[in-house]
Amino acid sequence: METEINRKVIVVYTNFIVELKDNFQKTIEKLSENHDVFVTEISINERISQKYLDMEKTYLKLYEAQKEFKGYANIKILMPFDKKFSSTKAVTEKAYRNFFGDRIIPFKSSEKTMEQVLERVYRKIPPFSTAPGSSDKGFKDTLLWMSIIHYFEEYQSNSEVIFITSDKGFTNHESALVNEFYEKTKKKIEIKTNDFYKTLLGEDISQPQPSQIITRILTDNEKQSIRANISEVFDRICYTEKEDWNGDVYTVKTFEIFEKIDVSGAEKCFENLKSLISDHIFDEYINLSDLFFVYAPNIEGNYSIPIDTIDKLFALFNTIKTQYNDFLAQFYMTACNKINNNYKQHQKTDDDDLPF
pLDDT tens for residues 300-325? Predict the structure, then answer.
């Protein structure tokens, strides 16, 4: 009798859901063809919390508009905030439960669990932040991590687990967390950043094309250093962290681009970096439309970018161009992949149509 081959298990984190919001369902359906895809109850609750905060901002704008324009127009709020949020929460919870079924990893609160959490707080065990002055940053991530461990301690299959997240509380402590997971569950886990799903689906175009002949061989240290620098710089450009009312920090996109950037456009933007820095030499921040000037009409920037991030991007680009010129084309393609994670189709979709 042949041994059954176990499908790999994927657990997706909250920032993966947010990043792929418009195409989340289609992406999960594709991944589910060859993998068992799970989501945590804590991620679902975090998405509900984020929706609450976004809705609260919308209603505050409505209330302010009512006051500002009361002499000119009668602005009627069709549904009270509490009722609107209650409806959104119900729709969101139902969508996740219908879509994932029994593949939602629950969080079981108990006195023992809270003792374990407090111990991790005091000892700064990852994913709690070990940075000085970080206080209890990482509390929510710790609850999520513990729920994953508890679930797979009892999970019958010996399938390997892939945890997809771009949260630095996990990616910066990958080795320690992987070891802890194995010690407690006797199962292997990989921690991968959000764009890894493209590799799983065979959509990763960051690899050189057959026609591109590379004569130089990079050492492992060079490859790891370049990859780390690229990830750090583009994470700073494409994402920023926000703090909710509960003190939890979550990642949001700094911009959305409505036309996918290509290698030709990327080359023009990067070649313009030196001039861009000179034009803004005394500024602390610059607009995304200045950085990606080729695509300026198709960029909606939610945040400005610190000029020191642009300095880092220029230093990285200059290093690749002068020391690793054989790999410049690969750098452009990888940069395009990173930037295009913020791609969004132009048409607006009503929030009720996006239950995730």
Answer: 887 889 999 999 999 999 999 999 98
Would you state the pLDDT for residue 77? 92
One-character DSSP codes across 121-149: HHHT-TTS--STT-TTTTHHHHHHHHHHH
**Residue 329 in tokens:** 């084309």
CA neighbours closer than 13 Å in the CB half-sphere of residue 49 = 17
End-to-end alpha carbon distance in the chain: 42
Q: Pick the closest to residue 227 from 252, 251, 202, 196 (CA basis).
A: 196
C-alpha span between 311 and 298 (Å, rounded)? 24
Which parts of the chain register pLDDT below 50? 1-5, 205, 207-213, 348-349, 352
- Amino acid in position 166: S
With H, G, I as helix, E, B as strand and everything else as coil, classify residue 244: coil
Domains of the chain are 8-201 (3.40.50), 220-340 (no CATH)
Q: Are 244 and 18 in contact (CB under 8 A)?
A: no
Name the CA dihedral angle for 91, 96, 97, 103, rounded to a multiple of 10 degrees: -170
35-40 and 104-105 strand pairing = parallel
- Tokens 């681009």, residue located: 257
Q: Residue 197 corresponds to which tokens in the numbers above?
A: 């799903």
3-state DSSP of 15-40: HHHHHCHHHHHHHHHHHCCCEEEEEE
Which pLDDT value is given to residue 111? 80
